[in-house]
Amino acid sequence: MLQAVIIIISCSGLLLLAVYLQVRAWLYPERLAVAPQPADSRFRRVTFQTEDGLQIVAWYAPSNSGNAVLLLHGHRGNRDQLLAHAQYMVEAGYGALLIDFRNHGESEGHLTSMGYHETNDARAAYRFLVAQDGVERIVIWGHSMGGAAASRLMSEVHAAGLCIDATFADFPSLVLFGAEQRGAPARPISDILVYMYGRLSQTDFNEFRPIEYLARIETPVLLFHGSDDPMIPLTEAQRIAAVNPQIRLDVFEGAGHSNLYERQPDRYRRTVLRYLQAAFD
To answer: Which CATH class, in words, describes the domain spanning 31-170+208-280?
Structure first.
């Protein structure tokens, strides 16, 4: 009997440790350094402040056409992550603003919330773009966590379009998938993870549901996803596409979570530019 109690206590302790380490990894992702831009770059470093008082750092390339794209990166990324996309947009004549979310890159902040509080950063970035001379229309582009924030922002503003890459329908379903993939008892582990992360990040995941924001959008939305995404399964994108006929799902066969553009750059670039042209017309 004593041995059984010891085993139960030990297993419970290991489980709690695993939960703590996972929540900590979500809250405090490693900050990746931002590579400096060359002297002849079209992008200049800019800063602006969020409503809750954080300084956000970004790169901005002005628009030559009255049209600009706001690019929002994923968890553990920074503005470097989206530079390849911004470059072909700028070459096509569009302006581009690439931000570092709070607690990422060079921006201030000490906690990450998978898009909930990061929407404040996206709002501040959108206000920055609206205030720039020559910017008349804006499309929002977001990857993963950035796609979740972009979806919420899109439901609040009058942007010309929304392009999202590998985002989730809702965070609890994503955590449940991760627990199942690791062979752990999915319930109650996923519930504990979501509860602890929500408390520590001050996030209400019952309120923050990208799928609900996307269901209400009346503008055409371009949604990319990899068929073999190990972090956010294709079923999340299929759930999202099913709630709104305005959402077009473009699946990249064999692609993972962050490598769609690397696998088929011509197809990705061509699809995005065609979407931007239609959105800005």
So the answer is: alpha beta
